[in-house]
Design brief:
Blueprint (H helix, E strand, L loop, with lengths): L1 H16 L5 E8 L2 E12 L2 E2 L6 E2 L4 H14 L26 H5 L12 H6 L4 H4 L2 H4 L14 H15 L3 H10 L7 E2 L5 H5 L33 E2 L1 H9 L12 H7 L12 E2 L4 E2 L15 E5 L3 E6 L4 E7 L7 H19 L1
Antiparallel strand pairs: 1-2, 1-11, 2-3, 4-6, 5-6, 7-8, 8-9, 9-10, 10-11
Length: 349
């Protein structure tokens, strides 16, 4: 197996040498045992990729938000059937009144993906509440529950829901109910402190890359603690987080029943693929990047080039981090991610 996995790391080295990737890390866990932890290239200029580098996780962040929401469900502060309007008066109008917590978690709310003028809003370095105002003002894309429509703004609303029912800032909720009980000491939401900034990977091609208002930059974007894309973590910490949803959990984060609900399909088959659990993509990637995984797989991929997937049929966890954004070429981005995930599952099986 090690020899077959070396073909994957050689492919990643080739991506780095030809300039397709700047830096990357790959971890493979089978049967609860780490069989590969590999790094190559640079996380940022002068920062070699390694176990201490902090990688902006982009949409993989939604798994942390979903976990916090389900922790509140376990404690009786929320239910999946509660309407957002019952908690947020801003949603108490005809179009949005039917949206539930379940709709927001499964991307079936109809709330738009993100503001149409996202780049302009970032350039103004607005606070989070102003950055996500479109969730309350722009028309819904469809009637709640009638379709699947991937939504960053929907997850921003979930953060606000958690704040209202707990009376606390959402980052504190995530810290108490996710990061601390999971033992994630190298995961940050938001990113703070010059020492942590020193270990931050640079996301090449992300909005505002290299500018003060960069979406995945240390000075503004990652200080927002956006519930849809604001988490940064080391590769070992991301592996540890994912393992909490497998039979090899390093501790108790959520009840087994909660984990089963999060990692099984919650959207009707009539709404098509990919299916969504509660936070997790189920049975196939939103990007179409898990061709060889079984229909029971679950995970998430982010536009910064990060992916975390588990297949219970093969008892296989694959976690990949890199820092070349989808904006620089969607087709090639997806080919790179798929070549890693497919290559690992083929090697292991």
């Amino acid at each position: 197996m090690v020899e077959r996995l070396s073909e994957i790391t050689s492919r990643l080295t080739w991506f780095i040498e030809r300039g397709e990737l700047d830096g990357a890390g790959l971890a493979v866990v089978q049967g609860g045992s780490m069989v590969l932890e590999w790094y190559g290239g640079e996380g940022a200029p002068g920062l070699p990729a390694g176990p201490e580098v902090l990688w902006p996780l982009a949409a993989v962040s939604k798994l942390y938000t979903a976990t916090a929401i389900l922790a509140l469900v376990e404690r009786g502060l929320l239910t999946l059937g509660m309407t957002a309007a019952s908690i947020l008066p801003e949603f108490d109008e005809d179009e949005r009144r039917a949206i539930t917590v379940r709709h927001l978690l499964t991307h079936t709310s109809g709330v738009p993906y993100e503001p149409v003028d996202m780049e302009t809003l970032l350039q103004q370095q607005l606070p989070l509440d102003e950055l996500i105002e479109a969730a309350f003002t722009e028309p819904l894309d469809f009637a709640p529950g009638s379709r699947i429509g991937y939504s960053d703004l929907g997850y921003a609303v979930l953060g606000m829901v958690a704040e209202r029912v707990t009376g606390r800032p959402f980052p504190e909720v995530v810290q108490e109910f996710v990061l601390m009980p999971a033992g994630l000491h190298a995961t940050h939401f938001p990113l703070q402190g010059e020492e942590n900034e020193r270990w931050l990977a640079r996301v090449v091609g992300g909005l505002g890359d290299g500018l003060p208002w960069a979406m995945y930059g240390a000075r503004y974007g990652l200080r927002l603690a956006h519930p849809a894309w604001g988490v940064v973590a080391t590769l070992p910490d991301l592996v540890r987080f994912l393992l909490h949803f497998t039979p090899h959990a390093p501790g108790r984060l959520l009840a087994r029943a909660t984990i089963a609900a999060m990692t099984s399909r919650q959207t009707p088959e009539t709404l098509g693929l990919p299916g969504w659990g509660l936070g997790f993509e189920v049975g196939g990637g939103y990007f179409g990047e898990v061709d060889l995984f079984s229909p029971s797989c679950f995970g998430h991929t982010g536009a910064t080039g990060c992916a975390a997937w588990y297949d219970p049929v093969y008892d296989l966890a694959v976690v990949f981090v890199s820092n070349r954004h989808l904006n620089l070429g969607r087709e090639r981005f997806l080919q790179r991610i798929a070549s890693v995930l497919n290559g690992v599952v083929a090697a292991v099986t």
